[in-house]
């Protein structure tokens, strides 16, 4: 009950601070089937913005993927990770490179996931998107029937800049693209390029510069 209350308060607070304006495409996401939402990564608040934008029935079946080392430090983080966000926490320094893929594949049996294929937050504001890590390809290869949905998060890096504890009230937008599935014979390079292009094409600010 307490976790549900925290969920409600966080959603209202994040919506108030960011004035998040998701496209109808994300508000209309169905709770039927499981998918992987992959987004650009500028801030620790990225996953919250995407998570709260999903309909409640979808949100409670969608798990953000995050580093176990960060989210298990302290009782508050652990409570948020396990009880509020129902995160899928992975070992970032595991000796088994395939462990995280297995963990995510097992989670996809019952839930959808939110991932950030850049791996780490982008620090260079002049770089729209960092190269994707190969994990996105291997996850798709292990789950060929799963839909991968690109989501561009706009302006979140200015709401919670690096080094800031308190967020700055600014408007944010979410743009959702067409779902992708890996091709039968698609190589790692081709799939990652296609996925990265699908995400970059949602960046309205870059389109305005061209």
UniProtKB/TrEMBL annotation:
Pathway: Lipid metabolism. This is Lysophospholipid acyltransferase family protein. Keywords: Acyltransferase, Transferase. The lineage of its organism: Bacteria, Pseudomonadati, Pseudomonadota, Gammaproteobacteria, Pasteurellales. The keyword Acyltransferase applies. Residues 35-156 form the Phospholipid/glycerol acyltransferase domain. The keyword Transferase applies. GO terms for molecular function: acyltransferase activity.
